[in-house]
Specification:
Blueprint (H helix, E strand, L loop, with lengths): L10 H18 L20 H16 L6 E5 L5 H10 L2 E6 L2 H13 L6 E5 L13 E6 L9 H11 E14 L9 H9 L7 H10 L3 E7 L5 H13 L5 H7 L18 E9 L2
Parallel strand pairs: 1-2, 1-4, 2-3, 4-5
Antiparallel strand pairs: 5-7, 6-7
This protein binds S-adenosylmethionine (SAM).
Length: about 280
């Protein structure tokens, strides 16, 4: 019998997964500087997936409250799209880290192409280890759809607290199973965790997790309707459109791993998304 239970993500393997996804997207024309879900403010919003992805970054920008004098850490920075948007919209300096070497190469190239090499620097690193930054060195930390790959959330958030300056904000999204929790969870959630090397957060423990890390909670929101559920619907629509082969739409999100396709989660209301804001006291 094959064991289909998700295993605990290992950073080096997560790095290889994103190396592969980045190379594939660069070569098949599906490259997107954002590697995350979209955010639609209202059910009748007609924003495209690309606009909705930028909208999610803009929500992070509002919540971080940064300006041209700020230094922002982008934890799990992808290929730099969100970080470069922070630079462009606020003038803040951004340092990003990702476990994928390929993403870091790409992010630094995009920063140079945008003329932001002096404001944005991306480096390879494992956010589940001690972060290579001094205490209190950042005014804000953003973790956009990255902490789900870091099973030791406690270690990560404790380090985030250490590198934040007093009053500095953390904004993150995370995935969790929505209530009522089923005795057997939807198979699409296991496929997601296995294929994308992720774990689901425990929402009941999230406030305590932040407090144990030394952070003060400012807000925790279930944004499933605005993000994951709507993203699933939009991808399904794209896949159904005659002139777009489903395989290409599946890759739009860089979710091109053999074992997982966004349609596995289409309409799965149990697959939730949290938007969390906290600060270092
Ligand atoms: C879904 S992507 C999100 C990328 C980016 N935040 C964005 O929104 O475009 C997840 C990111 O988390 C990073 N990541 C996962 N585990 C990591 C770890 N242990 N240390 C550093 N980065 C990690 C991946 O390399 C990838 O860049």
């Amino acid at each position: 019998m094959t064991d289909t239970a998700p295993s605990i993500p290992v950073p080096a393997a997560v790095g290889e997964l994103y190396d592969r996804l980045t190379r594939t997207a660069m070569s098949d024309g599906t490259f997107n500087p954002n590697v995350h879900i979209g955010y639609w403010d209202t059910p009748d919003s007609e924003a495209t997936i690309e606009e909705a992805m930028d909208r999610l970054t803009d929500i992070f920008i509002d919540r971080m409250g940064v300006d041209g004098s700020s230094h922002v850490l982008d934890l799990g920075c992808g290929v730099g799209g969100p970080g470069l948007r922070v630079v462009a919209h606020t003038g803040a300096r951004v340092t990003g880290i990702s476990i994928s070497e390929e993403q870091i190469r790409t992010a630094n190239q995009l920063a140079a192409d945008a003329g932001f090499a002096d404001r944005a620097a991306f480096r390879h690193g494992d956010a589940m280890k001690r972060l290579p930054f001094a205490d209190g060195s950042f005014d804000a930390v953003m973790a956009l759809e990255s902490i789900c790959h870091m099973p030791d959330r406690q270690q990560v958030l404790t380090e985030v607290c250490r590198v934040l300056a007093p009053g500095g904000r953390l904004v993150l999204t995370d995935v969790f199973e929505r209530a009522p929790r089923k005795p057997v969870r939807h198979p699409g959630i296991d496929t997601f965790c296995r294929g994308l090397m992720a774990t689901m957060a425990d929402i009941d423990d999230y406030v305590a997790l932040l407090h144990r890390s030394g952070l003060r909670l400012r807000g925790i929101l279930d944004v499933t309707e605005q993000t994951t559920l709507r993203t699933g619907r939009e991808l399904a629509k794209l896949a159904a459109a005659e002139d777009r082969p489903a395989a290409m739409d599946e890759r739009n999100f860089l979710f091109s791993d053999d074992a997982f396709h966004p349609s596995d989660l289409a309409g799965v209301e149990d697959f939730g998304c949290l938007l969390v804001t906290a600060e270092r006291p």
